[in-house]
Each structure stands twice: as structure tokens, then as C-alpha cells.
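Practice record 12: protein with manganese (II) ion.
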Amino acid sequence: MSERPRPDQAPDQAPDVVIPALALVVIASRPAEAAQAFAARHFRPEEVVSIESERVASEAFAAARLNIAQRLSDGLLTVATIGGEGADLSAALARLAHHHDVAPVALTLGRAIAAARFPLGPRSYEAAHALLTPHEWLTARIIRQPLACDLRGESGPFDIIGDVHGCYSELRDLLTLLGYVDDGAGGMRHPTGRRAVFVGDLVDRGPGVTQVARQVMDMVAAGQAFCAPGNHDIKLMRALEGRHVTIAHGLQESLDQIAALPSEAERERFTRDFVAFIRRIPPYLMLDGGALVVAHAGLPERYQGRISERVRVLVFYGETTGGEDQYGHPERIDWAADYHGAAAVVYGHTPHRETHWRNNTINVDTGCVHGGRLTAVRWPERAVVSVPAHREYAHRAGGLH
Ligand SMILES: [Mn+2]
């Protein structure tokens, strides 16, 4: 972290330490007393677990580990204070956080702690902050930043729209049927303030990929919509970033349609805007005080309110058995069959002919691009609204079930 004060801070003010609102914050100092004092000053007593031993194979760590595991399992921010030794200990704490799909964040006090004790990386620490002088320890502010998925402050009414896959005409039909009107600037808005929420998979397979993406990006930018990314959106983003991806499942249609934009400037602008958009939107959305979760492939209750690599894979691709059905589609684990969560989960990803609420979940992918329907569910009404596809744009082996 930079020691240079930001322009809006007094020169002797320590930099703000921004941590995720759900994290395992590991505070290290040599000796450990400074870390304990810092934790007592900046965190609530029940949030802090002091680890009195530097060794992983100690009773002190075993006891602390149980306590930390319980708190992380309950989705509570937790602070562990440790001394300046024991790289094994910092690694064990990072593993414990990842096990619970919580970000491990390090905060070191003083110059005596080697940064190497808190390596950054997907299997290690997400961030490492350093406060170098006792003056900084006293003046630092801890800022708890809500997770990107935490949109609980956004309340409805919403219209949550299933996989569009470039079906631009049908998207316009559906938005019109739902009461949205052209806002004169490319976007659409609802006269009574309803907002659209997209479950993702805007692109691939269908004929209007760039129009759909542009429409959704415009609506999100105008505050008229939210969007969770789908696996197809992520893959197109990667392809546009120049990364190696297998061209399959309709990706070629998206690339062709982008290549067919009328000018190099428009191609560049679309590529830049789409990549930035998919990068910026959260992996899934918690809305309406937490009563509503929108995730492309759904999300079991134990992962709601968490963001990790495992959660990303789950919300983009869903859980599969690794096997395939008779048509070559991945065999999916029916997570909704035993869903008992308090939050309603609206998702898409796997096309079905019919849609209905089941255990407080609903799959709104009714296979529009495969000649089915484009579907929305109204929230909080829970009513289903849909429009028929104008035609079958992409064949699905075995058809819709
Ligand atoms: Mn899809």
C-alpha cells in the first residue's frame, strides 16, 4: 500500500485501509501486542481472535481455528491477530478463509514483518496492507466495503429477464409487454420506475448480439437495469481480450457480428465497452434487502453473500456431475431440488420449455434462441411474463424439455 497521502487527507493522516465487509483480516505485528491493541481499537471484541501461538501444531491454534471457522461459516467478518513469526500460520489462515469462500486480507504493523509472509494470489492473500509507524496505527481508518454482489439496498419492483442470447427483437417485445418505453437515448425505461434485471448470457447464438449487449449496457448505465454475467458473456469477454478460448456454442456468431459493425471505430468501441462492462458487474446480485438473489446458474444458500473463485465458477457454470446426457449436454446437479434458503433465487443457464417456482427458486431460461420463449419474472409479484421467439435461431440437440 502507498505511504503517500491522498490529496483529500491531511499530510499526517494514515491512508485508509479498505477491507471487504466479509473477510478474514490477519493482523500481524512483532511482538503480537501491537496487533492485539490495534484490533481492539478498530474492531468489535467479538470479531477478534488472538492467536497466542506461532505454531500451527499447537492447542492455541486449534482452539482459535474452531472459533474462526464458526464465524466464517456464519458469514461474519473475523480478525485474527498473530505475532511476527510463523509463515505456516499465515498460510493456514489463508486456507481456512478460502475454505469458507471468504477473502483473506493481511494487515502488518511496523517494518519488522516480511511481506513474503503474506504472498498475494488466488490461493493465498487477496490483499496485504501495511501500516509502518505507531502514528499510522493510531490514525488509520478501517473502511468496510460491501461485497460487489451486495445490492441489498436496491429494492424493486424488478422484472428479471432470462437468457437473451442475442434475441434483440424478442427483448424489445418483452420489454414493451412489460411496459418499458423508449427513453429516446437508446435505452428503455419503465414509467412507474420498475427496473430490469438480466440473469446473463446476453450474447452468442442469436442474430442481435451487439444490439442486445448495447441495450443492456445503456440501461445499466442509466440506472434502469442490473445485470449478472453468464458463462457466454464471460467467454466472449475473454475472446475480446485476446485470450485463447475455444470457439464453440455460438461464440463465432458473436465475433462475426462484432466484425460486421460498420467501422473500425465502432468495433473498437463495442469491444472496449463490453469488456469493461462484464469486468465491472458483480458475479451475481443480492437485491431487495437480501430477499432476492439473481445468479446466472443459481446459487445454493451456503454461498450467498460470498465471493470466491469457487462461487464464480458456480454462478457462471453451475454444478455438473462431469457426465453428459444422451444429447451431449453436461449433466447438471439439480441444486434447486433441495433448496431451503430464505432468499428467492432467480436464474437461467439451462433452457426449459416450461418455467415455474420451485422451492423459492425459478429458472427463467425458456430457450428463446432455440425457438422457445423469452421470459421475465416480476418481483415482488412473482408473476411470469413471456414472449415467443420469432423463430429458432440455433438448434438445440434433443430440443427443449
Ligand atoms: Mn445460456
